[in-house]
Fold this sequence. Notes:
Distance between the termini: 40 Å
Oligomer: single chain
Strand content: 15-25%
Strand order of the largest sheet: 2-3-1-4
Low-confidence stretches: none
Number of helices: 4
Number of strands: 4
Structural class: alpha+beta
Number of domains: 1
Largest sheet: 4 strands, antiparallel
Amino acid sequence: MYTTTPNTALAPVELAERYTVENLREIVALAQDAAYRAADVFEQEHFPNGGWGACGFAWVSIHGIKGNTKIGRKLKQAGVTQSWDKSFQIWNPSKYPTQNVDTLEAGARAAAEVFKRYGFTAYAGSRLD
Length: 129
């Protein structure tokens, strides 16, 4: 498989050499799993009786990669889309069944941490609806 480089951003060329499309699909799956678990923990802790907070959206963004590079093309093949701001994004990485922005953002933060562990520059984002 591949090794992680904890929270150390790698250059796009290094990422392209290190990861195959299949590896990237596995990393995306790990990020989505971590996001779901984090969202669930947050929801159960803060809204145990099904209460609601503010509605909104959350996503994870991967920065510093151009779409026409090897790693950019591999990310696209792995199902990660490129946004209008040229970052790569996964909207609602947790797929948690809520509209609560705080819950969804907890999931996006967890997904960003997974990508960081694998050498990507990643951040969580959110906005109110």
